[in-house]
Amino acid sequence: MSKKIIFSGMRPTGSLHIGHLSVVQNWAARQDEYECYYAVVDWHALTTGFEDKIPLRELARSITLDWLSVGLDPEKCSIFVQSAVKEHAELHLLFSMFTPLSWLERVPTYKDQLQQLGRDGKDLRMYGFLGYPLLQAADILAYRAEAVPVGEDQLPHIEFCREVARRFNHLYGPLFPEPQALVGKTPLLPGVDGRKMSKSYNNSIAITASPAEIAAQTRQMVTDPARVRKDDPGHPEVCVAHKFHKIYSADRITELEADCRAGRVGCAVCKKELAAAIDRVLAPYRERRAYWEEGDRVERVLAAGQEKARAAAAETLRATRAAIGL
Ligand code: SF4
Q1: Ligand 1: which atom is nearest the Cα of residue 265?
Q2: Which of 105, 151, 206, 321 is the most exposed place for a label (fewest CB within 10 A)?
Q3: Ligand 1 atom index nearest CA of 256
Q4: Which pLDDT band holds residue 235 (cuts at 50, 70, 90)?
Q5: How far is CA 256 from the centre of its chain?
Q6: Closest residue (by CA) to atom 7 of ligand 1?
Q7: Rounded Cα gap, residues 108 and 261, in angstroms
């Protein structure tokens, strides 16, 4: 029996930090079970960053290197850059003929981001920004993907994609599956200062961080403000370090929590243990990265991924054109 197909993508916005890690780990975990297409969605980066002169080609290479370091295996999945597979653009165009504007305007992230980025002085009242969920639907449906590994914030976009597939099938005959969301279980991690984790706030830990960098960022983590002396009883539920421990020290979490509440462990020692736990996860990524960094290995992965993706997307486009009568 042939494997089910999944598609997912990520914008090339800079090096991965550990806040993104669960997404890529979720991708890697699916590569044996599914036929996977993973794309660096560079056109999407332009929908919000068209004025920023982003070095997209460079960033696409570096994010691919990050994915390979975390464990995506090019023998098992197709890794490629979205703009190298032009079929996505034609599908987007064809879908735009029958997608009501009201569907795009009611996508919850549209108004939220418009306001949020508007406050930062960005005018995003552009067609590309309004239409990006439709481009995302074209990305997914180009492979007739049946599932999409996503974070919870992306669920409205998957529902939107399902509506597009339904409308196409209703108008032109059954061609597209209605993809399901595969939501990762790992909760979102905050930055070391408790705000949203972002490279621009300097509150993240890069997946390439050295042991010294991990230790330095871990020392910055906001802890329970009620703890003044190291034997004061702590409240791990308000501590950023504890949120990280829940993921990186899952096997010791009950003990760590009890020690904190009873004031048996100081924050410095607790954070030192956390830094070591994070490093145990990141160390193999650094090793794998050293392998993939050599020569033109990344370029070859992208070229092979692109070839497979283009063949699959071209087949879908042929069927789409035929169904429409083109
Ligand atoms: S002991 Fe650990 S969990 Fe408790 S407040 Fe300090 S850093 Fe946080």
Answers
A1: 1
A2: 105
A3: 3
A4: very high
A5: 30
A6: 267
A7: 40
> How many A from CA of 266 to the centre of ligand 1?
7
Which tokens in the block code for residue 196? Answer: 């949203």
The DSSP line for 256-269 is HHHHHHTT-S-HHH
Three-state SS for 36?
strand
Residue 1's pLDDT is 67
Pick the closest to residue 282 from 247, 239, 252 (CA basis).
247
What is the spatial distance between Cα 258 and Cα 218, in angstroms, rounded to a whole number? 20
| Position 256, amino acid | L
Q: For residue 126, give the DSSP letter.
A: S
Name the 3-class secondary structure at 12: coil
CA of 261 to the centre of ligand 1 (A): 9
Dihedral sign, Cα of residue 127, residue 129, residue 130, residue 131: positive
CATH among 3.30.390.50, 3.40.50.2300, 3.40.50.620, 3.40.50.300 for 5-188+296-324: 3.40.50.620
Instruction: Provide the residue type at 16 as one letter.
Output: L
How does pLDDT run across 15-28, given as a tens digit for each residue?
889 988 888 988 99
According to DSSP, the residues that pair with 206 across neighbouring strands are 17
Contact 26, 156 (CB under 8 A): no
Mutate to test the pocket of ligand 1, among 220, 261, 271 (most ligand atoms within 8 A of CB): 271
Hey, CA dihedral for 128, 130, 133, 137, is it positive or negative?
Answer: negative
Nearest to 57 by CA among 82, 94, 35: 82
Whole-prediction pTM: 0.91
Whether pLDDT at 174 is above 80: yes
CATH of the domain spanning 199-287, picked from 3.30.2270.10, 3.90.76.10, 1.20.210.10, 1.10.240.10: 1.10.240.10
Per-residue b or e along 145-163, where b marks 16 or more CB atoms closer than 10 Å to that residue's CB: bbbbbbeeebeebbebbbe
Ligand 1 geometric centre to CA of 145 (Å): 43
